[in-house]
Recover the amino acids of this structure.
């Protein structure tokens, strides 16, 4: 019997060392669990009772509390937001809602250049409007529908009814407008071709040589049909592609291409303005014609 059991109880030096280490680890674990209550104080009976308490709805915020705090600016005497139309809203009101005077100025310039906001989402196209600010004001935006619709009898439209489509009119049709001669009519058509389509009547102000008084005289006769605007990819457009946009000069096009080659692709369109590659006004004009 002893001969049979001897192989199971005889160990070499390495095995004996291993057993000693294992016994030390087991002893340390036993000591740790023994002294753990002395190191970490037990949970008090009061906290244990609180953990199993049923939900008390009376502890919730009163109705409307979250809404009031979400849509008001920090400040004791700051009034809550009210429904508003962003078109024609004074800069002071934008400042009251949270924009800086400079941001409000950029937004007003953007509104003037684009001919106004047709839907609430148009506000997000101006880079001074952050996602957080837009989410705060969006529930209060109320854009009034204005402008006459073009009917089948547009050829005999009244004196204030828009009947000339800037996206389809040729030079002959444009010359029928007061103050528009052959030179200006040709410039408008060439500007449209280079631009890739008008998205707003107000863009006519950017045509070289067209005076403000002429624009104000013909604005009521004009409208823009929905068209697919030709867009420039900020991550793939080359130097010549950027120059297709009449708002981009040679220096700006070169700076954009060089910056992209050095720093890699743009992650957001807003980076063009944030990195100082274009100013706020140019960015607002180009935005409808840009894509990543």
């Amino acid at each position: 019997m002893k001969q049979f059991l001897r192989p199971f109880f005889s160990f070499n030096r390495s095995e004996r060392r291993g057993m000693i280490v294992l016994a030390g680890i087991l002893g340390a674990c036993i000591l740790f669990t023994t002294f753990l209550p002395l190191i970490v104080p037990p949970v008090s009976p009061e906290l244990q009772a609180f953990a199993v308490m049923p939900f008390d709805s009376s502890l919730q915020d009163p109705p409307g509390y979250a809404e009031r705090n979400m849509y008001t600016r920090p400040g004791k005497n700051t009034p809550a937001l009210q429904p508003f139309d962003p078109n024609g809203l004074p800069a002071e009101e934008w400042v009251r809602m949270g924009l800086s005077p400079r941001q409000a100025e950029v937004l007003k310039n953007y509104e003037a250049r684009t001919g106004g906001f047709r839907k609430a989402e148009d506000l997000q196209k101006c880079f001074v409007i952050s996602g957080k600010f837009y989410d705060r004001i969006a529930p209060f935006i109320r854009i009034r529908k204005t402008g006459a619709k073009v009917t089948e009898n547009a050829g005999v439209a009244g004196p204030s009814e828009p009947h000339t489509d800037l996206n389809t009119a040729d030079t002959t049709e444009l010359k029928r407008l007061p103050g528009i001669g052959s030179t200006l009519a040709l410039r408008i058509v060439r500007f449209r071709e280079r631009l890739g389509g008008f998205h707003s009547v107000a863009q006519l102000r950017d045509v070289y040589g067209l005076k403000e008084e002429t624009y104000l005289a013909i604005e009521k006769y004009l409208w823009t049909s929905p068209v697919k605007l030709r867009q420039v990819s900020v991550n793939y457009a080359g130097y010549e592609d950027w120059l297709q946009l009449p708002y981009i000069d040679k220096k700006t096009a070169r700076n954009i291409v060089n910056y992209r080659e050095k720093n890699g692709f743009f992650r957001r369109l807003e980076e063009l303005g944030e990195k100082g590659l274009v100013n706020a006004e140019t960015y607002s004009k180009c935005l409808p014609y840009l894509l990543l």
